[in-house]
Amino acid sequence: MLNVLLVAAGGAIGSVLRYWLSTLAITHLGTAFPWGTLGVNIAGSAAIGIAAGLGLQGEARLLLVTGLLGGFTTFSAFSLESGALFERAWWLAALYVLASVGLGLAAFAVCYGLLKK
After folding, report:
1. CA–CA dist 68, 7 (Å, integer)
2. Binding residues for Na(+)
3. Cα–Cα distance, 49 to 80 (Å, whole number)
4. Which residues define the annotated binding site?
5. Which residue ranges does UniProt annotate as crossing the membrane (predicted)?
6. Tens-digit pLDDT profile for residues 92-116
7. Angle (deg, nearest 10), helices 2-29 and 35-54
8. Closest Cα partner for 99 from 110, 111, 91, 89?
9. Which label site among 26, 38, 40, 113 has the fewest CB atoms less than 10 Å from its CB?
10. Closest CA to 40 of 65, 64, 14
11. What's the pLDDT score for residue 92?
């Protein structure tokens, strides 16, 4: 149960941070480009790189990586997983990146197209 609470607490904090940073970006930079999302994705990827480099494990990993960074941006998890796959085989990482982005955009387009009125 402690593990679930750590992930939930971190996720709540990460989600609120994402909201605040996105709102700040919209306020100062406008809505013509998703600066907030871009900034969050880059910051989250840097933060998860630091966490992985430090070798966070156990409760700290659950709170900070799974919870906080997972709530802040799932792109950070995508970056971590891509990097881990790259260490095993570059082509596996490339396949994962292409499949995630390509199939994710395709799934969005299909579902959006079916439901848009």
Report:
1. 7
2. 70, 73
3. 7
4. 70, 73
5. 34-55, 62-78, 90-115
6. 999 999 999 999 899 889 989 999 8
7. 140
8. 91
9. 113
10. 14
11. 95
CA dist list (Å): 67 to 21, 74, 76, 82: 17, 10, 12, 19
Cut 0.85: pTM above it: no
One-letter amino acid identity for 29?
L
Token pair of 95 as six digits:
């396949």
Domain range summary for the chain, segments of one domain joined by +? 2-115
Q: Which residue type does 27 have?
A: T
> What's the token pair of residue 64?
């900070």
Kindly report the three-state secondary structure assignment for every residue of the chain: CHHHHHHHHHHHHHHHHHHHHHHHHHHHHCCCCCHHHHHHHHHHHHHHHHHHHHCCCHHHHHHHHHHHHHHHCHHHHHHHHHHHHHHHCHHHHHHHHHHHHHHHHHHHHHHHHHHCC
